[in-house]
Please model this.
Amino acid sequence: MSNQESKSEAIVELVGVTKVYRTGAVETHALRGMDLVVKRGEFVALWGPSGSGKSTALNLVGALDTPSGGTVKLEGRDLGELSSRALARLRRDRIGFVFQSYNLIPVLTAYENAESVMALQGVSQKEREERVMKLLADVGLAGMEHRRPHELSGGQQQRVAVARAIASRPAVVLADEPTANLDSVTSEKLLDMMARLNAEQGITFVFSTHDPRVMKYARRLVGLVDGRVDTDVVKEQGAEA
Amino acid sequence: MPGPKLVALAWRNLWRQKRRTLLTLASIAFGGFMAVMMTGMQDQSFADFIDNAARLGAGHVTVQHSEYMDRPTLTRSVTGTDAKRATAESDAEVVRAVERISGPMMVATARDSFGAFFIAFDPAVETPETMEFTEHLDEGELFESADSRGIVVGSILAENLQLELGDKVVYTITDRGGEIVSGMERLTGTVTTGAPSTDAALVLLPLGILKRTVGYGTHESTQVAVFLEDGRRTIDVADRLDPKIDDASVLTWDELQPEIKAFVAMKVGGGRVMELIIGVLVAAGIFNTLFMSVLERSREFGIMRAIGYTRGQLFSLVMLESAMLAALGLVSAVAVTAGPYSYVHGMGIDMTEIYAQQGNSVDIGGVGMDMILRVGLYPESAVIIAVSIVVATMLAGVYPAWKAGRVNPVEAINQG
Model:
């Protein structure tokens, strides 16, 4: 596969996706027929007001939830056809997650958190060590490998989370409001790092956000309103939102 | 740099809430301690009780006339007792086999007469393992040999007959041919077994003298009493002896004394119920610890599910925590129990005053219980307790572990 072909390959496909949450007799339509294609190497931000369906869409793409209707595909595989075990494998091998509240495992060190998914994948200890040490250096955490999450700042924890998300070499990294709990300087540094990883390593990033700083870094902005794609803008090189 | 394996993760999780884990370990240790002490007391007291019953009766295993049990009369004797003793003693589990004559009799003095139960034996072949009270007379002394003159009676019987040492005692029994015969001896001693019904009826006589009185041959008795190292092995030993002795019945102590068997079974059952209650209480504590720990970590389990841990791996993680808790609990239980167990096993607790204050007589089927409370856990009881602790802890972990595996990642991540 040439680089050009690889770049045009659809990583994420949502076709007519609906999601309805039921609480007793009350139905909440989080997604009302969402269509979206994300290609390899893209740096996409799903943005919109609260309740627009950003996080729901991300959860469906991340195989954390199942749609009420429509199809969600990751690298061409229909997630609706996979078993719970296969979905767990898919999340482990093909998806990286970065959450709003860092969500590191508190009893593990920065190093262990970063390597945890690779350990699940069965990557050899030597390779894990090489990859994790490089990644922690890349995200600016060299020398902090042995620190537990409570010994790190919020920004540092989020950088460990990014290292964990990309260490397993996933097809796509899904980041749900990754800067929501960070100050502006830390957010800029984190986004700068993610943009660099996207540019240098071709890692696909899909964000859900309403943070203008994220939108500034995103190369494509998908606006959601009431559970549907309202706008879909690909920025020119060098342009800002 | 080592990776975060499930075992390491489980171990660290266990110590996240140190106080709670230590409290849980303390509750397991306490449960183990209670189970060991209760079961140990029970095992020891029943072993002693069975041995007492065997010593006072006719051994752990008894060889006697096949109809003697239905109606114990001296007309129903066994012969060839020397050969039968030798046969029994050739069994590796038999420590001693002795011959005895026992049965009902009347005893009389110039002042009164009472019905009694006699045991005639040879003090030269009996040992403390076969007849403990031969060395613990209240007053006076035992006849020296099977052919020495003398009689020893229970302390209450002596009181009832207003006997003093040296007083004449006349006994009347039926002989080998069913005729009534009498003998006369002077009181050489009195004995207290601890069982009032026994102390009010027991008469000890020299075997040789009695044999001549009732017309028995040299190797003829009503029983050959067989004593074992372990009183619980009676059935196996009886099964082995039975085919080797074809002219008499081979019976176990519990066949001869069913009321004692029923008492032991009832007490063992009661003990098991108590142990079960302790087990359930301890398991509830462990369940609470693990369940709380899982609920507190549901967000974390959601994250773990999100990054690729399977349900099975999360289930295994919590079960590993449970297993570690069980192992540590077992070690804690041993540490807490060892000292008190050793003390009570060696020194015992004297219960005489407590029983005296309560006015209780400890007399089941004419057999007294030892007033010194000791613990002596059978090896199989120790194994059962250890296995129960591990199984209860593991079972208590199953639901929390299942719950951990069933966490909905979206709901868990969004909470808090």
In short: Chain B has 14 helices and 16 strands. The radius of gyration of chain B is 30 Å. Chain B has a mean pLDDT of 85. Chain B touches chain A at residues 1-5, 9, 12-13, 16, 299-300, 303-311, 313, 409-410, 413 (CB under 8 Å).
